[in-house]
């Protein structure tokens, strides 16, 4: 079983976004951050979640027999995955569901930001780095 936490950070004035990914398996953490192409926070949340599952697929020995506990502080990501639908973000929902498809079971849970501190911190660090480069 893997636990996957993702979070995105966006600077509205510049349109820069970055995300953080925290993967926990067998009491070991994998921490990743990445600049994102998204220019709004909602799209950034979907993008980093997809990237998190893509990375997890490379780490899991056998995704078809792997359960993932997916934690997000994005209400729209949580609701959209549950419904397999989002009025303005359907292509992003489809991309995320496709990234989840290789796994045996994905249990998605919304968590408050304070319970997603690891991914949140990684996202903010990556955003500050992106701002420094720009």
Automatic annotation (TrEMBL):
Statement: the UniProt record of this protein carries the keyword Hydrolase: yes
E.C. no: 3.1.26.4
Molecular function, one GO term: RNA-DNA hybrid ribonuclease activity
Domain (RNase H type-1) ranges: 1-132
Keywords: Hydrolase
Pfam families recorded: RVT_3 (PF13456)
Protein name, entry field: Ribonuclease HI family protein
